[in-house]
Amino acid sequence: MAEKWVLMVTAQTPTNIAVIKYWGKRDENLILPINDSISVTLDPQHLCTTTSVAVSPAFTHDRMWLNGKEISLSGGRYQNCLRELRARASDVEDEEKGIKIAKKDWEKLHVHIASYNNFPTAAGLASSAAGFACLVFSLAKLMNVKEDHSKLSAIARQGSGSACRSLYGGFVKWIMGKEENGSDSIAVQLADEKHWGDLVIIIAVVSSRQKETSSTSGMRETVETSMLIEHRAKEVVPRRIIQMEEAIKDHDFPSFSRLACSDSNQFHAVCLDTSPPIFYMNDTSHRIISCIEKWNRFEGTPQVAYTFDAGPNAVLIAHNRNAAKLLLQRLLFYFPPQSDTDLSRYSLPSHVDFYCWKSVNFNSLKSIFPLCLLFSSYVIGDKSILEDAGVHNMKDIEALAAPPEVKDNTPAQKYKGDVSYFICTRPGKGPVLLNDETKELLNAETGLPN
Amino acid sequence: MAEKWVLMVTAQTPTNIAVIKYWGKRDENLILPINDSISVTLDPQHLCTTTSVAVSPAFTHDRMWLNGKEISLSGGRYQNCLRELRARASDVEDEEKGIKIAKKDWEKLHVHIASYNNFPTAAGLASSAAGFACLVFSLAKLMNVKEDHSKLSAIARQGSGSACRSLYGGFVKWIMGKEENGSDSIAVQLADEKHWGDLVIIIAVVSSRQKETSSTSGMRETVETSMLIEHRAKEVVPRRIIQMEEAIKDHDFPSFSRLACSDSNQFHAVCLDTSPPIFYMNDTSHRIISCIEKWNRFEGTPQVAYTFDAGPNAVLIAHNRNAAKLLLQRLLFYFPPQSDTDLSRYSLPSHVDFYCWKSVNFNSLKSIFPLCLLFSSYVIGDKSILEDAGVHNMKDIEALAAPPEVKDNTPAQKYKGDVSYFICTRPGKGPVLLNDETKELLNAETGLPN
Fold first, then answer.
1. In chain B, which residue's Cα lies nearest the Cα of A414?
2. Are residues B167 and B205 in the same domain?
3. How is A270-302 classified by DSSP, letter by letter?
4. Percent of chain A with pLDDT over 70
5. pLDDT digit string (tens) for A307-322?
6. Residue A404: which CATH number?
7. B270 contacts A268? CB cut-off 8 A
8. Do B273 and A269 touch (CB under 8 A)?
9. Which of A221, A303, B182, B392 could pair covalently with A323 via S-S, beta carbons 3.0-4.6 A apart?
10. Is B258 in CB contact (< 8 Å) with chain A?
11. What sequence ranges are listed for the domain Mvd1 C-terminal (chains A, B) (predicted)?
């Protein structure tokens, strides 16, 4: 075995948004939840993590770089994932490079991991879900772990609970399981991303001045202090899981929307019932909800569902392209960009929007906001929705009419600057291996970040 | 019986703030709640309703004026109160004026009612509670209704649920009762206002751009759609009622504070769990909660309890005068007045603050804000707390230091203009008759508003 080789795998994994929420653990170390949850996987073209993992006899210890900056792997969550994967590693042979790794060698070999998100880490868009899913998926490929995605999901779960749902595309259920060791707490795919291809997802990244409670400490405090969480987990969610599976199977958007909205609201209700109370939504989040509720009521049947994770950002799921167009018009009407946003840049190739973020360390939304203005635009992702909406520049936004559900006699209040930007996306596929060498994040010779 | 006489009674009734919340009816017409509630009566010197009621054979129909403007009495709630009172009226004799009214005459005689609040009706400060309590109390005196306050509370309850708790001073429990006719759904006094005389109450009237859901429709929608309200009403509140009664009896402020805060948060949680969700608190409310929670945690034991009704205003209950002083300093530090507020006027006699409101029709907080600046000041009510806090003018506010619980390295964010004004008050007494003719709201000769 030559001492200089580096063997590398690069993979891409999507993030996901829960429509029946995970909130509360029954085991903090194994990350076992108190109820099932269901999510939609988001298109990795717009929101994903890319991870390169490499092994070499030259590596002296396990190392990891996140968005270009080295981070510690000493945390229990990383250690749990690495231990579980090494225990399942198999023989690996690369005939072309003349590399042979025996199953038992994996205990001694060290790995390098480089990971980056094509979206701001701090924006509250479940970066840890995509991140741990990608780490587990790529290491499993590198180490020739022969288990299926559901088994891998149980490993990713130990990194970040919701990461287990990012092992699949489309619509995914995380079964809470009953075993004490967590072996049956796994994700399963309910339907792939083509099953309900009409859905369009628009994410409103909401400006926030508040420091948010981490979901780990938040859910611990809820389980310890809320008088409502047990009733939710034991009585309410099990029924909603059955109904949501039906709604997805039947493409029943009214039921899907009703369940997703109610469950998001109930998750935030139990946060509020926590002592001290946890507020993830702010006035802007509330205004987005009111806008959607009013519109859905006006139409007589839901056009758009909303759901909010542990932060103020709205994830809006439109029934179809037409509803998405009407939604984007409403959002831009109520939440126009700051006047100095250069909306005309929206025709830049989409990778430009994201690649410019790669080398920047995002500590807060505030710090990215000026960059967002400089390099990107106010509506990113699938910009064809913006085309559909007939919006090409600031003047088009200023010319948008008040939605018909607004009563004529009350001039609609506008909230300029309350949304940082919008991302247009859709349900997407699960993890994939990338064979394009230009996407590798580690140097093929040194195993250090590119 | 001379045809020209007018017989009049004038009374004053306090408002109250629930510390274990009433939310949800089991009977919409009789206004029967789904759980017990407990409130603190607020000092009528700072927040009360004054009502004059008059009877005369010259009156052709029942009429009412609220804050100087005639309103309709045709609503079921007014009609229920009037019917219940007439059914219990007795013989009345005023020897001095030579007036004799027989029990049976009350069915034919008409009444005039004039009522005003010494606080803005639209400010979300439970004006209907004080209003209906005062209407029932004063009419009962006029009609010589011989029932005790608990029986009267069951009549006031049919005007506005929480009105029943305004029939007593101090600490009051509204027992939900079991009877279908509501006869046992009454208020009882747990302790009078002197029992826990140390408490100081500061109300932050929060500026709001949102139109709020009325509590009547809000609680109906919660009962119809929330999956958590039943568990709250049946499992959580009964235990809290027992614990809150104990805490009040024992002057146990830590328990009182924990229960009041948790129950306020849970009430807002079930509002959020309603479909469509109801948001009464806004970002300013959340910031006030965070300020109190951080301070209480820093001190190791609660200094101040918070509670929010169906609106964004914070009702803050301080353990004692010293805690109230420290609270007011914190509130003025985080929420300084708009720079054009004339704080130096705060030494005007307190009745000037309120009497100027009497003749104004307040439709929204926005409309009163400039008046509040003109005629009153930023801290009203018991201004001795402001003296304790050492704040006499804008410069004193600007000189306030950041509270010690704020970490040194993070400059505290301030929110100028987010609070309209503060009211300093305390637990207070129940309804009283006013014998001062200058306080009568109806003309003694004509029975029309003064």
1. B209
2. no
3. HHHTSSS------HHHHHHHHHHHHHHHHHSS-
4. 88
5. 999 999 999 999 999 9
6. 3.30.70
7. no
8. yes
9. A303
10. yes
11. 201-431
Query: Which among A262, A269, A413 has CB closest to B270?
Result: A269
Task: Tell whether B28 lies on the interface with A, counting CB pairs under 8 A.
Answer: no
Do A125 and A208 fall within a single domain? no
Per mean pLDDT, which range of B50-59, B232-241, B392-401 is the poorest? B392-401
Nearest chain A CA: its distance from B232 CA (Å): 7
State the Rg of chain A over Cα.
Answer: 22
Tokens of B366: 């926005």
- The closest CB to that of B276, out of A228, A283, A293, belongs to A293
Alpha helices in A321-427, H assignment, sequence order: 321-334, 350-358, 365-375, 384-388, 394-398
Mean pLDDT of B128-150: 96
Is the domain of B388 the same as that of B416?
yes
Contact predicate A317/A307, CB 8 Å: yes
Q: Are A397 and A332 in contact (CB under 8 A)?
A: yes
Peptide bond into A302 cis (omega under 30): no
Pairwise CB contact (< 8 Å): A275 & B289: no
- The answer to whether A231 contacts chain B (CB < 8 Å) is yes
Question: Which among B227, B235, B258 has CB closest to A236?
Answer: B227
Q: Shortest CB distance from B269 goes to which of A272, A286, A413?
A: A272
Cβ pair B275:A265 closer than 8 A: yes
| Residues of chain A contacting B413 with CB distance shorter than 8 Å | 209
pLDDT tens digits, B420-437: 999 999 999 999 999 999
Do the Cβ atoms of B231 and B219 come closer than 8 Å? Answer: no
CATH number of the CATH domain containing A148: 3.30.230.10
- Write down the mean pLDDT value for chain A: 90
Same domain, yes or no: B181 and B305: no
What single-letter DSSP state applies at residue B439? Answer: G
Please indicate, yes or no, if residue B243 is contained in any of the structural domains.
Answer: no
Q: Containing domain of residue A167, as a range? A: 7-193+435-439
Same domain, B43 and B161: yes
The reported pLDDT for the residue numbered B143 is 98
Q: Which residue of B has its CA nearest to A295?
A: B276
A46 three-state secondary structure: coil
Nearest CB among A209, A269, A297 relative to B413 is that of A209
Chain A residue at shortest CA distance from B225: A262
Q: How big, in percent rounded to 5, are the helix, strand and coil portions of chain B?
A: 40, 20, 40
A270: nearest CA in chain B? B269
Which residue type, as a one-letter code, is found at position B427? Answer: P
Q: A64 and A71 in contact (C-beta within 8 Å)? A: yes
Task: Give the Cα separation of A129 and A47 in Å (integer).
Answer: 11
Confidence tier at A351 by pLDDT (50, 70, 90): very low
